[in-house]
Design a protein that fits this description.
Length: about 400
């Protein structure tokens, strides 16, 4: 039990990622460049936030008039409801308020709203927050926060990574526009991938290959993948790789087609040694070719291709069609035993995933790997499937 509690505490601490203002501004600018009126006349809900420390709330409050917002709603989570003990001191705005309640301060969530100039300075901004205690602790799953969700047009935040799947389902349930941060590994789960495949969700404008720096608590538990911790303006930040924005708001970068070489030119000129002079191998159990790098996608191949997860950072829906993917819970494929024992037919009716368990590629004939753990091969040495998640795509022109 002690080890279980320790693990929960570590997980809770590692959910405490606070997004930098500059990263939020950069991402929102991409949507504004594509559509300057994207937020005009809209209500934005910022759940899991608090104006005292949330840069999401600060960004939208400071840009309220520029964005043409109708309303900002920001909700905070009660300190005593967090899975770890946190040092909490209410801010002066709360203590000085006539509705301050010492008992509710740690046990109830709060809701903050901006709708008008209440400071009297002639503009609407961060100084115009009004607030009150919630009846509950501010959990996004509560009925009162659900009601705020239903009122909003946009939901924008950095949800706890451990609750990403549930949070995404919570948004989709209400059919809202959203921009949220999550780990790129979430792409492969059953909540996210069908949305990506059906162009109901895509990656944001910020390239995820560089990772992002987040402000973290002083007692943050560093995992091996959390690199380059350092101080920015006296605040501890940590670089978290493989983090990206997920959204259903359009931006210009997703409509930029990839510039690609032909299959023949890739074999002749590719910078990748396992493509140049070698070509592309076909999977043994699926009618598709293995593409180890996004820039090695041939421009003239008309069949199905298995591409890396990083392809989604360059995906243009006008250029490619997403058919499915490998890995448990992220593809809509079922085995066609009438054809071959190990053949998988991509199917988009969403009825089954074709997986029964395990961590990787249970939809392949896993008899071995290439010695470098990059590919699974059969007894004859033919590539069956990459050891990493692969997304099955084809050129749009080939699907017509």
């Amino acid at each position: 039990m002690a080890n279980e509690n320790l693990s929960k505490a570590k997980a809770a601490k590692n959910d405490e990622f606070y997004t930098q203002y500059s990263d939020i501004e950069k991402e929102m600018n991409a949507y504004l460049e594509y559509d300057p009126d994207v937020f005009r006349g809209k209500t934005v809900l910022l759940p899991c936030d608090d104006p005292e420390w949330s840069n999401f709330t600060k960004y939208f409050a400071q840009n309220y008039e520029f964005l043409g917002l109708k309303k900002i709603i920001s909700t905070s989570y009660a300190p005593n409801s967090k899975p770890i003990e946190v040092e909490y001191q209410p801010g002066m705005f709360e203590i000085d308020s006539p509705i301050y309640d010492e008992g509710k301060s740690k046990n109830n969530g709060k809701v903050f709203t901006v709708t008008q100039d209440i400071s009297g300075d002639g503009k609407v901004d961060f100084k115009d927050f009004e607030w009150e205690y919630l009846e509950g602790d501010g959990d996004f799953r509560s009925d009162e926060v659900k009601a705020l969700r239903d009122e909003a047009d946009f939901i924008i935040t950095n949800p706890p990574f451990s609750l990403f799947r549930e949070f995404l389902a919570w948004i989709v349930e209400a059919d809202k526009k959203f921009v949220i941060i999550g780990n790129m590994n979430a792409i492969g789960n059953k909540e996210a991938f069908p949305l990506i495949r059906d162009d109901r969700m895509w990656l944001g404008a910020t390239n995820f290959n560089k990772g992002m720096y987040f402000r973290v608590p002083d007692d943050f538990v560093y995992a091996p993948t959390y690199k380059f911790e350092r101080k920015i303006d006296g605040v501890t930040v940590s670089r978290v790789p493989g983090v990206c924005w997920f959204t259903n708001i359009d931006h210009g970068r997703r409509h930029d087609p990839l510039s690609l070489m032909t299959e023949a030119d890739n074999i002749k000129f590719s910078k990748h040694k396992n493509v140049k002079d070698f070509g592309y191998q076909k999977y043994d159990n699926y009618d598709a070719i293995e593409i180890p790098f996004t820039d090695a996608i041939p421009s003239d191949y008309e069949g199905v291709m298995g591409v890396p997860i990083t392809f989604l950072d360059k995906y243009s829906p006008e250029q490619f069609e997403i058919l499915g993917a490998t890995q448990r819970g992220c593809h809509d494929a079922v085995p066609d035993t009438k054809k071959y024992d190990n053949y998988w037919e991509v199917r988009q009716d969403g009825t089954k995933t074709g997986s029964s368990g395990g961590k990787t590629n249970e939809n392949a004939n896993l008899l071995g790997n290439d010695g470098k753990k990059n590919y699974f091969t059969n007894k004859k040495g033919r590539v069956i499937q990459s050891a990493y998640l692969r997304i099955f795509i084809r050129h749009r022109k080939a699907s017509k």
